[in-house]
């Protein structure tokens, strides 16, 4: 096969030319595919770095000069004074080739693509102020035009990474019989992220591939206004004007395949289950787009770097020797050099500083609390930042000298591997389901560090579980999982981290054999994620596509996500027990009735399951048919002189969410935490109902409840 990889950046072959992690992914995948004897090309911008490329590598200038006028339609709400409604951008694009490790790399250069040579990516503040904001769009158009010219009649798979950087490409190649289009979702951007519809229509017409864009969504139901606005605090969803079109729809409807970096990411992107957005998502048109195109989904995979997975002595670290997995590393020397005590268990965190993504505010609060409580342990916290960290980091470090080492600078891989080899545990409290694979956790585990990490679906492949010592998955468990978090500065996450860190310290001292088992499991788990394995996963999806085989949605996936309408008639007859259990999980009474009698006993099971997961809409639907079950539902709240009282004993937290004042742009809601008193939660209210409550369960699941001013009327 000929596989044409394309992304906005492709400097992963040389650390001097890298800005983002997708660049590293692109390069490692490309050369791994080439090693499987496939022809591989990469198409990407030169970013004004041609002179650097020529100095560092053997670059060939191709006989290619594409002069054209690119039409851009500007959204007047964003682009105001000084910009016309429509502009023509005059561009002349040249192409340059570098051959390396069996891969042909094609670098495109023009007046726009050569801007921002140092940072490459346009800053967000350029939106509405500087036309460099459109550099990624120019990349898309130039890549399409170059691929059409260079590989005009050649059969190939065009494999693009991150939909935000290629949403024009699937439609542009849709009617080309020689090109198959594969998209890989690299990050969990909001699935409803949208772009200006007239801009998309103009560019697709310019490319000669006008397509009928998805219809404009109808206004969302009024009862979704407050939960929808709340999603701005979860980073899962933002509302757009009706003259926008979703990036997801452009890719899902026109690509031949859509890949994800992990099975957990694929699952998350399919139904947003257990998040504050789930109940809103299920009632939006995008949910139907996902469901209809889910047969195209595949697990593309990702990998931990070769330097980490190929190191020798895998069991040395797990045996707590001074010799690490990565060669001879003097643990005592490393920790002493950082001002820490080698006699103590050591916890390690390594990520860019991104408080709403990486859970670092909760992490430093937990570290401070653990040390304040007298725990004897070391903490190495690497939070890469050019602009400093939150003041809490300095405060905790000042209170506990010799226990906490904080680093913000970039270091080379050798030093990073020494830190990881010196650590006993690694802590990754990522939030909002923003991580899709989390290479840094895999690297630390490959060094033998036992993880403490959130149960984000995008990280589930690393094998950390709620109870790794005595739970049902103890034999293969790698470390501890704490509940998912979808709240900023989340006290529940802080408390969970404190508990797990204390438990890890006790285990390290009291049960070396159990610690060694977890460490061995961590090493084995992380080292299975190689680039060769990733390439094989891609080829397992590419080869049937190349041979004209249309993928089918597995029955298991339809049941997993409650897509009962996608089940063929024979499945209902052949697999009634599985369908019944899936219907129970999703609270789908109609699906259950097709395979089982919905008698009072079954209805009670439905009700209890829905109540346990705080699915109050499902409880209401069941109680409407079986009124005897309505007692808990009817008595769950009451109005008193001191405010609203709400009873859901198994909830960990309940918040009252009120509409925010519209002051231009998107209005943020007001969130009032309810105070727990026994089985009840209480909050003062002066605003008229109905009231929206956001419920958080101990495992991090979130759900909404809508209360009427008069109990029993909802």
Strand order of the largest sheet: 3-4-5-2-1-6-7-10-11
* Major beta-sheet overview: 9 strands, mixed
Class inferred from helices and paired strands: alpha/beta
Query: Gyration radius, to the nearest Å?
Result: 27 Å
CATH topology of the domain at 306-528: Rossmann fold
The CATH top-level class label of the domain at 306-528: Alpha Beta
> What is the arithmetic mean of pLDDT?
94
Number of strands: 26
Helix percent band: 25-40%
Shape, principal axes of CA atoms: globular
Supply the number of helical segments: 28
Spans of at least 5 consecutive residues whose pLDDT stays below 50 are 313-325
> Which CATH architecture of the domain at 306-528?
3-Layer(aba) Sandwich
Strand content: 15-25%
Cα distance, first to last residue? Answer: 59 Å
Report on this structure.
The chain is globular, with a radius of gyration of 27 Å. By secondary structure, the chain is an alpha/beta fold. Among the domains are: 189-255 and 263-303 and 530-552, no CATH class; 306-528, 3-Layer(aba) Sandwich (Rossmann fold), CATH 3.40.50.2000; 567-629, no CATH class; 635-707, Immunoglobulin-like. It starts with a strand and ends in a 7-residue tail after the last strand. Helix 24 (576-586) runs antiparallel to helix 25 and helix 26 (600-612) packs antiparallel against helix 27. Mean pLDDT is 94; it is low at 313-325. The strands form 5 sheets. The chain has a 9-stranded mixed sheet, sandwiched between helices. A 7-stranded parallel sheet has the order 14-13-12-15-16-18-17, sandwiched between helices. It is 36% helix and 20% strand. The longest helix is centred in the C-terminal third of the chain and has 20 residues, at 491-510. The chain has 28 helices and 26 strands.
